[in-house]
Specification:
Helix content: under 10%
Radius of gyration: 21 Å
Distance between the termini: 19 Å
Order of helices and strands: HEEEE
Number of helices: 1
């Protein structure tokens, strides 16, 4: 909190509200993996991961952001 008040933070995030929650968000993720035995001593393992989180929005479809000038 002191860094925020002094103007030193590199990034600041806030989650859902604790009182009277009127914000919404949703997220989606998936992961898949497989392996391929090339030879008796060599196995090739690989995977793919994807994550998406929609920015927080308000019930009336309003959104806010604070980006102070540098």
């Amino acid at each position: 909190m002191a860094d925020l008040l002094l103007g030193l933070p590199l990034s600041v995030s806030i989650g859902l509200q604790l009182t009277n929650p009127t914000t919404t968000s949703w997220e989606m993720e998936f992961y898949g993996q497989d392996s391929w035995q090339v030879t008796k001593r060599l196995v090739f393992s690989y995977g793919l991961r994807y994550e998406f989180q929609k920015p927080y929005g308000e019930i009336n479809n309003s959104i806010s952001n604070f980006d102070p000038p540098r």
